[in-house]
Structure prediction request, 119 residues.
Amino acid sequence: MSLLVHAYVRGPAGEMVFLDGPPGSDLAGPTTARTGIYGAACVVALGARMLPLLATEDVYAETAAELDALDADCALLLDNLAYVSTSVGRSPDFIEQRVRNIALAIARARSRGGAVVIW
Prediction:
């Protein structure tokens, strides 16, 4: 199974209407990334707030403050990519690509007044 990230807006009946990105831009990692990357002790120690929630639940960033917090977590991981990569035993490129997919989903959501889900 894969961990996916989607930008979305709410439809007329409250349903999620996904905002498509380029092929592959929905990939946030394998399911094991929930605890093996995003919920890893090193990510928590850096001060990430939203991404570590993936260890136990899906993440919905629906308010401006939640989108800001998720975006800050992405920046934090990218700024500390070598440390995170070494700590979790994944290549920097692997982590960077998935975190950038999350950041791009945030940008898509903001451009349309939407939200982001990672599930």
The two ends are 11 Å apart (CA to CA).
